[in-house]
Write a structure and sequence with these properties.
By secondary structure, the protein is an alpha+beta fold. It is built from eight helices and six strands; from the N terminus they run αβββαβαββααααα. Helix 3 links the parallel strand 4 (96-106) and strand 5 (133-141). The two termini are 35 Å apart.
Length: 265
């Protein structure tokens, strides 16, 4: 298989390709009357990580999708990262993933199908680590490589964790260091130091399984995963949804090695 740099085929990188919240608000605007479903516990109104539907038997279904363009050059790692990112939305609701289907856009006249196979294989490996099947999917011929998953999960209805249910006095806990976007941008520009090679990749491939455990912790009032909008963007969503303000101590925020050095360049 030929050696390629997948990031050279993408105008953005990973969640950095997300449409801004302001533009997204315009896109999602509707003139239609709201459709009411009392069993839909979490929908568009709260800007949460996933939708949650009450089955009426004490269990709720979690449904989410996430996909993006290459954030690393290696096809297998790209698949792993995209799958980890998609499954994370289920954990962010306090749930357990049960299955996934793949979403693939591929420039078939530019990149060989064997490269796409490695992307899928990377996604499949993460699904296996999460204990779920990659049960199907859909693919299209696209101008840029795109990969992700639609993931289904379950959660005890009484233990759903939202991003708009924080309470005054809650402490903010971050389970992974920040700065992945800075390091991946440095890598794309061939400015990443040898000692930082693979660091962002390893963190991006680490499943957020503790999220499911947090559902059992009474003191945990709200959950979210920090991705494309960064800590400030996602924290703003929590604060606005919960009608609260937050105070951050800059020196207490965990960051990856080298982040400030790359930001200064």
């Amino acid at each position: 298989m030929e050696n390629v740099r997948l990031t050279q085929y993408s105008h953005g990188a990973g969640c950095g390709c997300k449409i801004s919240p302001q533009v997204l608000d315009t896109i999602l605007r509707t003139q239609l009357a709201p459709f009411s479903d009392p069993n839909l516990l979490v929908g568009n109104e709260s800007k949460d990580d996933a939708a949650v539907y009450d089955l009426g038997n004490g269990t709720s279904v979690i449904s989410t999708t996430d996909f993006f363009m290459p954030i690393v050059d290696d096809p297998f790692d790209f698949g792993r990262i995209a799958a980890t990112n998609a499954i994370s939305d289920v954990y962010a609701m306090g749930g357990k993933p049960i299955m996934a289907i793949a979403i693939l856009g591929w420039p078939v006249n530019i990149l060989a199908p064997e490269i796409a196979q490695q992307v899928i294989e990377g996604g499949r490996s993460v699904c296996r680590e999460a204990g779920i099947s990659l049960a199907g999917g859909h693919s299209i011929d696209a101008p840029e490589p795109i990969f992700g998953l639609a993931v289904t999960g379950i959660v005890d209805t009484t233990r759903v964790k939202r991003n708009d249910s924080a309470e005054a006095g809650c402490k903010l806990y971050i389970t992974k260091p920040l700065g992945i976007g800075v390091l991946t941008t440095a890598e794309k520009k061939s400015k990443l130091a040898d000692e930082h090679q693979g660091l962002a990749r390893d963190w991006m491939c680490k499943l957020n399984k503790p999220g499911a455990d947090f559902a059992d912790v009474a003191g945990v009032k709200a959950l979210t995963d920090v991705t494309g909008f960064g800590l400030m963007g996602h924290l703003t969503e929590i604060c606005e949804g919960s009608n609260l303000k937050a105070k951050l101590w800059f020196d207490k925020v965990p960051t990856l090695p080298g982040v400030y050095e790359y930001m200064s360049k």
